[in-house]
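Lecture notes, unit on protein representations.

Consider one protein chain, 169 amino acids long.
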Amino acid sequence: MEECPKTADEEIVGKTGDRGSMIRTKIRRMGGIVVFIGFVLLIPSFIGMGIGGLGLLGSGFIASQTSKSTPEVESDLRAAKVPEPMIIQLIEGAIPTSEQLSALPPTQMLAVQKAQFALHGKDLEPGILVGGCVAIIIASLVGGLLGWLLVMKKWVLRCTHCRAVLPAG
């Protein structure tokens, strides 16, 4: 039978005698419920950062689409061969009905949706969207860091016989 190793300052002895050896291993810093809370904080933080990132991409798309002028939108609609009455309806600010949209082929429907975005998207205020997305990312990052602190592990020396634990400084 092996004995627990001795350090320079003291003798490491297990609770049941001089049996066992100290091995270096990792254990959780906190107890079970705290680790569970850490995972509850950690997992949704990844989702929040993803949603915030997608929101930032979306706000960039909104900004790029709303920078078009009315003549540019009109020429895009004509290039997609959207019927003239619908072009006039869009330029005047009226929103097409779902029946009108469903009668269009996919390429024309996409052109109409982009035109609606360009003409009415200026009301969306992309700056507010960017600020909200950045706030979501920061809150998710803080929650993720807190969760990570609660679930992280530390190195210890553990006796193979009695399971006693010492810091592995």
